Structure formats: structure tokens, C-alpha cells
Amino acid sequence: MKRTRTTLAVLCAALLAVPAAAGERDLKQAELTQLRERIGSLRQALDETKGRFSTARKDLRDTERRIGRLVRNIRSLDADIAGQRKRLDRLTAEQRALRASIDTQRAHLAAQVRASHAMGRQEYLKLVLNQEDPAALGRVLVYYDYMNRARAGRIGKLQQDVQRLDALGVTLNSETERLAALRVDRAAELKALETDRRQRSVLVAKLRQEVATKDERLRHLLADERDLVRLLQGLADAIDDLPATAGQPFAKSRGRLPWPTRGRVAAAFGSDRAYGRLRWQGMLIRADQGQEVKAVSHGRVAFAEWLRGYGLLVIIDHGDGYMSLYGHNQSVLAEVGDWVQAGQLIATVGDSGGSDHAGLYFEIRHNGKPLDPAKWVLARR
């Protein structure tokens, strides 16, 4: 009886654990949805700032968002095409192996037929009619029976291989057609991308005309910095009640973080950015268009959208008030709420936000205060 009660208790606990786990998943999903709604509202508030957001900038924002989506689609298509090619290579290798197996089966069958023919049907009849050695007759009959069954087995195997080869040929044709369709889609995406890039060049030229004077340029840069500060404050409030990031505290990674991308530092932290009245709050790394951008540490993506002055921007929350920022991206490959690890791909290098050259703008902040990234990343030899 005691064992029965124990078993029932275990079963009840197991049954209760199922809805509990489901409820926990629903709760996490609800938290993620709420986080995205908060950040979406924050982004919309920044977009709707009056008086400092010209038509050209709005058009630039929309165009660079489209470019980001197109580049992301193209990367996805390239990955699908690469996977498809590997599958085709495997199927082709399997087809070659099947053909070799069929050739082997045919050769063995032909050898059996030749051996049987060489022995002759008359020899078989002669042994059957010869009653002098019944034991020899039994052995020969067994041998002939073995030969016939072996021949039938090889014929059956040959027929199966031929059927598999036919089916594989159909699959190969289907996969080849799918690969061709993917290539057509990619060509269309590339054409649309080139169109948007040309439009972006026109918009950037218009923006340069708008900020032709030093005072106008400085005013825009200061406004962009204020928008970033507002965004960071809003993000801190939005993610304040979310679970902290797991793993080693970010503060202990000082001087040991990997670089977010390869390239030359074109602007260092604290250097002059505009006429002695504005300094760089991070570092600008010159890099090739489309080069990979990777997270410097584990954390949660708090922002992954376009921000005036910074283009397509990714912000990762590392807990304890630490955040890393990655700006001017060509495309964003992470979404708000995603957990990322150090070295994980999150974006590609670009020139969004009206930048003149391709590169990555990289910041590290603690409670909103900018820190020198060069003191946090690994020293370069």
C-alpha cells in the first residue's frame, strides 16, 4: 500500500509539472512580447520627434531599413542555396554509389550465368541419370540449388538498386529545380538592393546639403546624441524588471572582450568629433561593407532598429547596467529579446545613418555613462 501511495504521488507531481512548464514558457513569451511592445513605443516616440526629422532623413531611414531587410533575405537565401548544393552533392554521390553497386551486381550475375553455361545442362542431366554415386548426386544438386538461389538474390538486389536509382533521379531533378528557383529569388533581391542603394546615395547627398554649415552639422550631431541618451534611459526602464543575464559578470571581462569586427580604428574614444564641442563616445572601426559584426559578450538584445545618426543599431544588455552598442550596420541579424553569446553574429558592417564610409560604431556604457571600449577589448599586437 505504501509503495502504491508513493507511486501515485510521483505520478501526480509529474502531471502537475507539465502545465507548470507550459505556464513558465507562456510567461517568458508574455515578458518578451511586453518588452518588444515597450521598445516599439520608445522607438516610435523617437521617430515622431518634431522639428528635427527632415523628409530626407525619413526617406533615408525607410530606405536603409529596406536595405537591411534585403541583405538579411539575401544572406538567408545564400545559406539555403549552400545547403541545397550540399544536399545535391550528397545525392549525386549516392547516385554514383548506386550505379557502381548496379554495375557490380550485373558483373556478378554475368559471371554466374557464364559459370552455369560452362558446366552445361547436359552435365546436370548426366549426373541425375547416373545412379552409381548418390552422395555425389546430392552434393551437385545442393550446389545447383545454391547457384540458382544466389542468382535469384542478385537479380532481386539489382532490381531494388535500379528502382532506388530511378527514385533518386526524380529527387535530384526536384532539388535542382528548387535550387534554380532560389537563385532566381536571390537575383531579384539583389536587383531590388541595388535600386535601394542608388536611392540611398541620392538621399545622403540631400542630407549633406541640409547640414552644409558647421553650426547645422553640430546641431544635428548633438540632437543625435540626445536621442541616443533618451533611448538608453528608456531601455534601462524597459528591461529593469527582466531576469538578469546568466554567466560571468560583464565587469570581470575588462580587457578581455573580443573585438566586434575586424578593421582599423578611425576614431578613438574621447577624440574630437565636431569642432572641439563634441567628442566620440565610442570608437569608429573602418571595415568592409557586409563584414560580420559579433557580440562581445553574452547578453540580451535590447534594441535592433534604425536610430537617427546611428543607422541600423543593435544594443545588447549585459546586466548590472552594462550595455554594448553597434551602429551604422548594413543589416541587423538579431531581434529584440534574443539571448546572444560572445562571438555570436548579430549584424553586418554598413554605412547606414548617413555615414560616408562603411564601418562599425562601437560603444560600451555603464548606467548610461560611456566607457572607453579600447580598455575593454583585447589589446591588439
SSE layout:
Elements: H1 2-47, H2 55-119, H3 121-129, H4 134-210, H5 214-238, E1 264-267, E2 283-286, E3 292-294, E4 299-307, E5 311-319, E6 322-332, E7 339-340, E8 345-349, E9 359-366, E10 369-371
Antiparallel strand pairs: 1-2, 2-9, 3-8, 4-5, 4-7, 5-6, 6-8, 6-9, 9-10
Helix pairs in contact: 1-5, 2-4
Structural account:
With 381 residues, the chain is α+β, with helices and mostly antiparallel strands. Helices cover 58% and strands 15% of the residues. Strands 1, 2, 3, 4, 5, 6, 7, 8, 9 and 10 form a ten-stranded antiparallel beta sheet that branches.
Chain-averaged pLDDT: 79
The helical percent reads 55-70%
Basic shape: elongated
Uncertain runs: 1-22
Rg calculated over all Cα atoms: 35 Å
CATH class of the largest domain, named Mainly Beta
CATH-derived architecture of the largest domain: Distorted Sandwich
Proportion of beta-strand residues = 15-25%
* Annotation field: number of helices: 5
Sequence of secondary-structure elements: HHHHHEEEEEEEEEE
Counting copies of identical and different chains, the oligomeric state is single chain
> Given the helix and strand composition, which structural class is it?
alpha+beta
The total count of strands amounts to: 10
* Largest sheet, strands/sense/barrel: 10 strands, antiparallel
CATH topology of the largest domain: the name is Glucose Permease (Domain IIA)
